[in-house]
Write a structure and sequence with these properties.
Layout lengths: L2 E2 L5 E3 L7 E3 L13 E6 L1 E2 L1 E2 L3 E5 L3 E3 L1 H7 L6 E2 L16 E2 L9 E5 L4 H12 L3 E6 L2 H13 L4 E5 L5 H15 L4 E4 L14 H28 L4 E6 L12 H21 L4 E8 L5 H14 L3 H9 L10 H12 L10 E4 L7
Parallel strand pairs: 4-7, 11-12, 11-14, 12-13, 14-15, 15-16, 16-17
Antiparallel strand pairs: 1-10, 2-8, 3-4, 5-9, 6-7
Helix pairs in contact: 2-9, 4-5, 5-6, 7-8
The structure holds nicotinamide-adenine-dinucleotide.
The site of nicotinamide-adenine-dinucleotide (NAD) has 29 residues, from helix 2 and helix 7.
Enzyme class: oxidoreductase
Keywords: NAD, Oxidoreductase
Catalytic activity: (S)-acetoin + NAD(+) = diacetyl + NADH + H(+)
Length: 357
């Protein structure tokens, strides 16, 4: 197989002091910039073409960045070092398809239940460490605990995504605690039923702040972090099939999800130069507490029962069934992983064939 040059990463977990970790087996030794890593303290102190001495809980290692960013013998914290100017003779190559990356970090909002929880659990299976970020800290903690009990790596964070400063702080805290940030999933959202004549200014502000402004706050914080760490990243935003076609009774919700598709396209164009992709996913009718609430409200407004409310949403699904949260998580896992590296600015519709575009 023809070797190809590509960026790849390796993240080390906390190991006993002075343990030597060898990882040259993944990469042909002649191409390998640092075959042995040794943890001894809180900082990187020395580096040469064969040995790197590092300190700290998590060290994010991108060999191609070593080449251009690290100076021999200097001290760096947490692998963040840029513009050092010395180029070492490193040429990282690996066969196409080979992957030595593990434990990238994903921050997922609204992941204490529903689609967000399913995404978090799926990404853990894919090797991510995950930040379970939610307004409901108690539930977020339960999800994080259960992931950790099952051998994954997760931490819970209380966040109101409509609060710019709080959201930014939570992303920084998660990066400190989990070692890095590679993927932000702006999943949290609210979906009150809003027939036109019922909409108030307060409702407008609330829904637009939680569903739209939050994505901008999250993107600002995540892109600053990606850049500070000297690597790219992925932004993934929750849209909806209701953001592809206007849905009755959902004036505010539907329009916020149209906005998500638009801001995702703008982000893709603005951030590509920094190695950051931005995509969205548009679920259909997913069996989560949110959908049950919407169906209930639609039914109440029409004077019908919940089953009727749900049927108004489910009758046009080509695949003939409602969506499980895992159906959406599978698609988001694709957007979060490296198989989607050449995709940006897109909205992936995951609705069993409700909308065709
Ligand atoms: N369920 C569906 O059928 C469906 C369809 C299309 C799109 N979506 C979208 O998918 C995303 C997840 O939906 P879901 O069905 O899992 O919702 P859900 O209501 O079941 O879960 C949403 C989670 O977000 C949290 N949250 C709400 N407001 C928050 C805030 N201000 N800050 C932080 N967290 C907050 C909630 O506590 C909850 O844990 C939403 O953006 C939603 O619009 C859902």
């Amino acid at each position: 197989m023809q070797p190809m040059v590509r960026s790849w990463s390796l993240q080390l977990q906390l190991r006993p002091a002075n343990e030597i970790i060898t990882w040259s087996s993944y990469v042909p030794p002649s191409y390998c910039c640092a075959s042995t890593l040794k943890r001894t303290n809180q900082y990187i102190t020395t580096f040469d073409a064969h040995k790197l001495t590092i300190f700290g809980e998590n060290f994010y290692c991108k060999p191609r960045e070593f080449a251009s960013h690290f100076t021999y013998g200097k001290t760096y914290t947490n692998g963040v070092a840029r513009h050092c100017g010395v180029r070492l003779p490193i040429d990282v190559k690996q066969p196409e398809g080979a992957c030595i990356m593990n434990k990238e970090v994903a921050f997922i909002t609204g992941s204490a239940q529903g689609i967000g929880e399913a995404i978090a659990r799926r990404l853990v299976k894919d090797g991510f460490a995950v930040a379970i970020a939610d307004l409901n800290f108690e539930l977020a903690t339960k999800v994080a605990d259960s992931i950790n009990d099952d051998g994954g790596k997760a931490a819970a964070f209380k966040v109101d995504v409509s609060d710019r400063g709080g959201f930014q702080q939570a992303i920084e805290d998660a990066s400190d605690s989990l070692g890095d940030l590679n993927v932000l999933i702006n999943n949290a959202g609210i979906a009150p039923t809003t027939p036109i004549d019922t909409i108030t200014a307060e409702m407008f502000d609330k829904v637009y702040h939680v569903n739209v402004a939050s994505c901008i706050w999250g993107m600002q914080a995540a892109t600053a972090l990606f850049k500070g760490k000297g690597h790219g990243g992925k932004i993934i935003n929750a849209a909806s099939q209701a953001g592809v076609v206007g849905n009755a009774n959902l004036m505010l919700y539907s329009s916020t999800k149209f906005a998500i598709r638009g801001l995702t396209q703008v982000a893709a164009k603005d951030l590509a130069k920094d190695g950051i992709t931005a995509n969205a996913y548009a679920p259909g009718i997913v069996k989560t507490p949110m959908m049950m609430d919407i169906a209930h409200q639609v039914a109440v407004n029409a004077g019908k029962d919940d089953e009727w409310g749900m049927s108004t949403f489910s009758k046009d699904i080509t695949l003939g069934r409602l969506s499980e949260a895992s159906d959406v998580a599978n698609a988001v896992a694709f957007l979060a992983g490296h198989n989607s590296d050449y995709i940006t600015g897109q909205t992936l519709i995951v609705d069993g064939g409700m909308q065709f575009q």
